[in-house]
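Students often ask what a holo structure prediction actually looks like on paper. The answer is less mysterious than it sounds. You provide the chain, you provide the ligand, and the output is a string of discrete structure tokens encoding the 3D arrangement of the protein together with NAP.
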Amino acid sequence: MTVTAVLGAGKIGEALLAGLLQGGRGPEELLFTERHPERAAELTERYGIAGVEVGEAAKRADVLVVAVKPQDIEPVLAELAPLVGPGSLVVSLCAGLPTSLYERRLPDGVPVVRVMPNTPMVVGEAMSAVSPGRYATPEHVALVKEMLATVGEVVEVPESQQDAVTALSGSGPAYFFFLVEAMIDAGILLGLPRAVAEKLIIQSAVGAAKMLAETSEHPVILREAVTSPAGTTINAIRELEKHGVRAALLAAIEAARDRSVELGKAHE
Ligand SMILES: NC(=O)c1ccc[n+]([C@@H]2O[C@H](COP(=O)([O-])OP(=O)(O)OC[C@H]3O[C@@H](n4cnc5c(N)ncnc54)[C@H](OP(=O)(O)O)[C@@H]3O)[C@@H](O)[C@H]2O)c1
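The corresponding structure tokens follow.
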């Protein structure tokens, strides 16, 4: 039995715990730490998982998953340093934080694997990218990949690509939610009841996502199939291009990448 402890069970930490339970792990294989007792009690009540102190988590768990905000990492590293050794495995889900930060602050030889997940983890549809640090072996990477495969898809990338991954799939769900929100507004503008507009757009998003995932067609081909000559869609596409939506996405994702780089530098 591999015991996994999530340090900082906020949005992404809770999504991981929920996803692991849904993927077949038992509550006795999972632990978490939280700052607020009320939040810890709420999570234990909801999932039957024990909330513990960091010391107990380090003693009982084989895998320690760090899921605090990058800005909160320093006290966590200070707490972990006297408790971990080369036999532990530290998995970081923190945007922007390099494995070298953990390696500098923890005892020599502690293996670290950096992961960028995303929130669809809560429904078993996460996209996670993993990168091993200096002391992580292929077996450590395989263990982390296996854990994440129970809550979605996993790819391995060189750590130098993690800032780009963070901007693309880490933040990615937010871009889709933003688009859906704007499209529902458009439905309201056209006089549709909100509930109808929501259903039309959410099902269109689910259908489009399934077509992308299940056919091997390029998105351009799928879009062209909806864009008939002198039809309605091409009129909409002209407006999207006129308003620079493609350029806005390029700039937005580049800005997210820059912020990820900045978060990492803050701890140098
Ligand atoms: N949300 C996403 O879409 C997403 C996607 C990919 C990666 N991530 C990464 O996941 C990490 C967590 O993000 P999040 O959105 O889940 O943030 P969050 O909801 O704020 O969760 C962090 C949790 O950790 C707790 N915490 C902070 N310091 C702690 C400590 N010393 N001991 C125990 N618990 C502590 C926080 O408690 P308080 O409430 O007291 O602060 C909070 O409950 C971040 O590093 C982020 O970069 C997030």
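The mean pLDDT is 95.
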